Amino acid sequence: MSNSNQDFLCDVKKVFFDVKGDDKGRLVFFQNGNNLSFDIKRVFFIYNTKDCISRGHHAHYKTKQLLVATSGCVQINCEWKGRKESFVLSRPDMGLIIEGMVWHTMDNFSSDCVLMVLADSYYDEADYVRDYNEFLRVSGQ
Ligand code: TYD
Question: Whose CA is nearest to atom 14 of ligand 1?
Fold first, then answer.
């Protein structure tokens, strides 16, 4: 491929959400054009993942995602721009935005973990980089 060292979209941000709450309980919402930095095209959930399992192991050329552990907890390990950082998602009012060329893996899933992912793209295998060496090459590292 000829697109190594390009200036790909590439960012990771931890975010906290406003919580609507009263004596009935709590509520968090996401709405296009309101409290999200991208428009949602796709939603998926990861759950029933054993704690010995590591998932992900890919980056995206373009996709932006917001990850939220709506139940339980999970560790998200990110590598981008030569930097490595792990984030623990353990509450429904906190999330991680992963944009573009970020190698990410997910592990230490609690048995009750439901990891919700909001994405700005339809599922497209062509947007994935699933080979780590290819990720290093494409991202110019
Ligand atoms: P995969 O990306 O391998 O999961 P993980 O990175 O969490 O280990 O996806 C698992 C399967 O689900 C794979 O066959 C692709 C499919 N899939 C969809 O069809 N649509 C989607 O939006 C996603 C995220 C995955």
Answer: 125
Phi and psi at 132, nearest 5°, equal -60, -40
Tokens representing 61 are 């050329």
pTM for this prediction: 0.94
Quick one: which atom of ligand 1 is closest to the CA of 119? Answer: 22
> Residues 89-141: pLDDT tens digits?
999 999 999 999 999 999 999 999 999 999 999 999 999 999 999 999 999 88
Q: Mind listing the domains of the chain with CATH numbers?
A: 5-139 (2.60.120.10)
Mutation to probe ligand 1, out of 40, 45, 53, 55 (largest number of atoms < 8 A from CB): 55
Which residue's CA lies nearest to atom 19 of ligand 1? 123
Distance 34 CA to ligand 1 centre (A): 28
At residue 92's C-alpha, the angle toward residues 49 and 95, to 5°, is 85
